[in-house]
Amino acid sequence: MSSQIRVRLLPNARCLYDEPVQVKVAGLRPKQVVTMRARSTDEKGVVFSSSATYRADESGEIDLDRDPSLGGSYVGVEPMGLLWSMRPETPHRCFIKDKALQPLEVTFSVHKEEGEGQMLAEATNERLLMGDGVSRVPVKEGSFQGVLFTPPGDGPFPAVLDLCSFMTERRACLLANKGFVVLAVPVYNQKIGTFKEIHLDRFEEAKDFLQRQPKVGSKGIGVVSRSKGGDIALSLAAFVPGVEAVVWINGCSANVGFPLFYKSHQILSPLLFDHNKVICTESGATIIKYSVNNPLAEENKGSLIPVEQAEGRLLFVASEDDLNWDSKGYVDEMVERLKRHGKENFESVCYPKAGHLLESPYGPHCTSSLNGIVDLTVLWGGESKAHSAAEVHLWKKIQEFFRTHLSCDAAQTKAKFRYKQVDRKVTTNAD
User: How confident is the model at residue 115 (pLDDT cuts 50, 70, 90)?
Assistant: First the structure.
């Protein structure tokens, strides 16, 4: 490496996962053409990488906030392009970063364009999921288990239940950084093959636990969800009091997969898949979008969630290139039904070229991976540039939505501190 050439990460080489970083190179020859690369390893040991060609200016500098990529993983001015365009060295793998305590490390490097691409300089970006002062407490109470994230300070803070299909801490702790008390709870808390039914009571228990937290000031809770978590979130809003705001991301308007029970009674029948309608592609991944049965068919109407019963605010988020199922169609159907019932407690946002897996921003866009529910490698959809722009927009939208619709009561929070009772059933083993 040349001592004169250096890669700078601004404003700091250490930042939160959902924050952009400015990548600059100095010390090159005027107009020198080089390759910029990014490389990271996920929690499963899979290596992800990207590369792009850049030309230095007259001063021998490159600024990814200003300069266009001439080719490679993307083209044009894309300040965070090296991150969202990273791809796995092993095909059909999704970038796994689920544990909050370990930061993600991304190495940015600059290489000679000619020959074997000798590395000229590098710098490591440490991307944190948990900000300073945020607490993380694993929780097991009654029939549910999850992880509770609490911001620093006395509050009052709004409360959000994060319903993830399978356990992940990423979105929950990032929201806690923004001033929310967040409880992450998986929909599937055991192997899929062992499920025969799902009980809404488990998630109501989680909601009640969250509302009892001493720093929580909101009278009700918010719920953020995606995919299978979406229909659980809508069911909570329709059947369980105290749900003030729901963010539904690329879910279904019906109860998918398993019968849904509440108070020992089945309240919704399952919407099932027709595996004969799975489409195989040359890549080895399948498209399962068209294999989901029509929830509006007469024989499936018992699976439709009565979203018109919801009293809280609803934010529907749909990706138009979702290849998992017809998210946009489900939103259109729910909006029409809500209007027919005279309801105005909803809003929707659609992203034309985004795919199913909308995540917090600046992670690699996953185009295909194993779908653990149907046990097939599937295409998720989305064009990487548009998908990543949607993630940035949506992340801000989610925070604004919850801040607007989850009102906080400081007096209520002080009372909780004063009269807090310790529940001996709760295990709080901080890692």
Answer: low
Q: Are residues 124 and 139 in the same domain?
A: no
Are both 52 and 166 inside the same structural domain?
no
C-alpha to C-alpha distances, 334 to 94, 338, 346, nearest whole angstrom: 30, 6, 10
Separation CA 225–CA 229 (nearest Å): 5
- Asked if 425 contacts 141 with a C-beta cutoff of 8 angstroms, the reply is yes
Would you say residue 421 has pLDDT above 50? no
Same domain, 56 and 139: no
Beta strand 159-164 with 221-226: parallel, antiparallel or unpaired? parallel
Decide if 332 is inside a domain. Answer: yes
Domain identity same for 190 and 115: no
Q: In which domain, by residue range, is 93 found?
A: 6-128
Residues in the chain: 431
Q: How far apart are CA 40 and CA 46, in angstroms?
A: 8
Which sequence positions are flagged as catalytic? 227, 322, 356
Distance CA 277, CA 362 (A): 34
Q: What is the CATH number of the domain that holds 53?
A: 2.60.40.2240
DSSP state of 361: T
Q: Is the pLDDT score of 170 beyond 60? A: yes
Residue matched to tokens 């967040």: 182
Shared-domain flag, residues 187 and 120: no
Q: At 68, is the secondary structure helix, strand, or coil?
A: coil
CA distance 60 to 41: 31
CA distance 388 to 391: 5
Q: Judge if 161 and 25 occupy the same domain.
A: no
pLDDT in tens, 30-57: 999 999 999 999 999 999 999 999 999 9
**Integer angstrom CA distances of residue 155 from 131, 136, 179:** 16, 16, 8
In a domain, 427, yes or no: no
CATH code, domain with 226: 3.40.50.1820
Compute the average pLDDT of residues 363-388: 95
Q: What is the 3-state secondary structure (H, E, C) of 11-77?
A: CCCEEECCCCCEEEEECCCCCCEEEEEEEEECCCCCEEEEEEEEECCCCCCEECCCCCECEECCCEC
CB 172 within 8 A of CB 135: no
Secondary structure (3-state) at 343: coil
Instruction: Give CA–CA dist 225/246, Å, rounded.
Output: 8
Quick one: 147 and 123 in the same domain? no
